[in-house]
Every structure is written in structure tokens, then in C-alpha cells.
Amino acid sequence: MENVLLVALSRQMVLRREMDVIANNVANVTTNGFKRRMANSAEFQMPVASTDTFRRGNDRRVSFVVDRGTPLDLSAGTLEPTNNPMDVAIQGDAFFVVQTPQGERFTRNGAMMLNSNGEMVTSDGHRVVGEQGPFQFTSTDGPISIAADGTVSAGNVTRGKFRLVRFANPQVLENAGANLFTARAQPEPATLARVQSGYVERSNVKPVLEISRMIEVNRAYQSVAGLVSRTDEVRKTAIQRLGESI
User: Fold this and answer.
1) Are residue 188 and residue 153 in the same domain, yes or no?
2) Whether residue 210 sits in one domain with residue 135
3) Average confidence (pLDDT) over 229-233
4) How many separate domains does the chain show?
5) Which among 100, 117, 147, 196 counts the fewest CB atoms within 10 Å?
6) Phi then psi for 192, rounded to 5 degrees?
7) Range of the domain at 43
8) pLDDT computed for residue 68 by the predictor
9) Model-level pTM?
10) For 224-237, what is the HEC assignment?
11) Pair (107, 122) in one structural domain
């Protein structure tokens, strides 16, 4: 009976974790460059119980549910036209590099603008890093344009080129904000990536699918909770009857 409760508890913990992941995905449906995460669980078989020389039972392995992490879904989000030449969407396996108070971070958020110091920043206020460092503009510069290879120009003057990077294993990326990532490995240049001016990449979350999954997880959690309740009632009844028989 204890096994039933422990297995049910392991399942509830994983379902709770999955519900948190889904809720975070839904909360970032409108976040530029957001990449959804997926809950990944698996079966874990507990080894048979140890026995001594005086008693050997026919112990069986007990299957528990374990959390195997929350891998990133790096599929591209919808490209939305903005008619703003400073907005750029990445086409391909790559990330922008931005400067934050905590150091360099990586993002797919291509909603760009100029701050009060004439620096190119994302909509979150982080400075965009080019191959030669951050981009700097003056009030006398011509209109800003961005080429497909990431070259940024002001009028006829080239101001630099986006530093686009990729990761051999994207799953090393860790969330450092809604659409910011840090990594446990060094990035490499994304030479094949291109950018499209006048567009931003939206979140890759599909709201209908996430809500449907949320309903499924909620029902599964309630089902397990019902099992735990019934098991607890059986145990209470057994203890009560045992007490009456003494």
C-alpha cells in the first residue's frame, strides 16, 4: 500500500512540474523570440528490496515517475511584419548577442530601437552586440538599414554587423529571462544564418495546444489525487477493523 502512495506522489510531482512549464509557456504567448519548454518524464524502476538469509520474498520492481528535465523547443516562431527597418528576425539556427548587467546573453528578440545614448538596444533595453562591439549612432546619421547578412548601416556609412552565434547542442541553453538565455558552452559563429529587416519573430507557443495539454494534466492530477484518497481510506478502514478485532 505504501508503494501505491509513493508511486502516486512521484506522478503528482511530475504533473505539478509540467503544469508550471505549461503556465510559463502560456504567459509568454506574446513575448518576442520566446521559446517554449516541454516537460519530459520517464519511468524509473526501483530495484528489488534487499533480503537477508532468513527471509526471501518474491520482490518485484516498482515503477516510479521521474522528471527528466524541460528541453527547449527551438522551432521558429511566426515572423510578423512591423514596417520598422530596425526590427529584424533571424532566419536559421542562430541568436543575437546582447549586453546585460549580468554579462552577455543570447536572444531571438529582434525588436530593436535606439536609446537616449544613441545605442541600439532590444525592446527590453539590452544593448545589441556586433562583431566589433555595441552599435553607436549620432543625431546626424542617415536612416538606419539592415542587410540580410546582418550588416547595419546609417545612410551610406556601415556601423557594424550583428554578431550571430549558434550552439552545437542548443539544449545547453538556460533561461535567464523571458527571452534571454545563458549557456554552459561557448557559442560558435552562425555563418549560415540570415536576418530579415522589418519583421520580428513571435513566440513559438501554440496557445490552443498548450491549453489542451493543461486540461489533460489537470485531469491526470485529479485522477491520481482520487487514487491517493481511496488508498488512504482503505488503509484507515483496515486499521480500524484490525483495532476492533483485538
Assistant:
1) yes
2) no
3) 77
4) 2
5) 117
6) -95, -10
7) 2-73+205-245
8) 76
9) 0.81
10) HHHHHHHHHHHHHH
11) yes
